[in-house]
Amino acid sequence: MTGLGLKRRIGRIAFDAGAMLLFAAGVLLLPVLLPAIAVSEAWEMRKLARTRCTRCGNRIGITEIRRARQDGIAQAWAAIGAVPALWRRRRVVAVWNVICPTCGHEYTYSFHARRQGLMSKGPGSDGAMSPGHGA
Ligand SMILES: [Zn+2]
Fold first, then answer.
1. Distance 125 CA to ligand 1 centre (A)
2. Span of 22-31, 64-73, 110-119 with lowest mean pLDDT
3. How far apart are CA 45 and CA 114, in angstroms?
4. Distance from the alpha carbon of residue 128 to the mean position of ligand 1, in angstroms
5. Which of 11, 109, 113, 133 could disulfide-link 96, Cβ–Cβ 3.0 to 4.6 Å?
6. What spatial distance separates the first Cα and last Cα of the chain, rounded to whole Å?
């Protein structure tokens, strides 16, 4: 009788411990994941900043990338305010509008198509350009 009760109690403790462990792992992983996301974003931004303008050949620069990012975030937040349910989707399709500080040529950058890097917006361009080229 007592043996069965004990077994059940141990099982219960094991279950609780498992749940606690999962919870702890989630809590512990969060501070690890957040900087990882920040680091990958910083790396992405530096890569974009090195991208040369297809029209004038000058680098876009981190200042413009930062501004475009802030703009993109503002847009995403505006979208959240309008349609909360679509938050995730809107965030994913958030597009940065990057403008060459030298000649004013416009580019778009989206996380959706981030492999393509900056996409030229203007006419008479081949469109995609690979970031970090010719550095
Ligand atoms: Zn330019």
1. 12
2. 110-119
3. 11
4. 15
5. 109
6. 76
The amino acid sitting at 55 is: R
Q: How far is the CA of 10 from the centre of ligand 1 (A)?
A: 69
Question: Model-level pTM?
Answer: 0.59
Nearest to 114 by CA among 126, 98, 102: 98
| C-alpha of residue 99 to centroid of ligand 1, in Å | 8
For 7, phi and psi rounded to 5 degrees?
-60, -45
The 3-state secondary structure of 79-103 reads HHHHCHHHHHHHHHHCEEEEECCCC
CA 102 to ligand 1 center in whole angstroms: 5
Crossing angle of the two packed helices 2-49 and 62-82, in degrees rounded to 10: 130
8 A C-beta contact, residue 91 and residue 101: no
Q: Give the model confidence (pLDDT) of 124-133 as tens digits.
A: 444 444 444 4
Distance 47 CA to ligand 1 centre (A): 17
Q: What is the C-alpha separation between 46 and 69, in angstroms, rounded?
A: 12
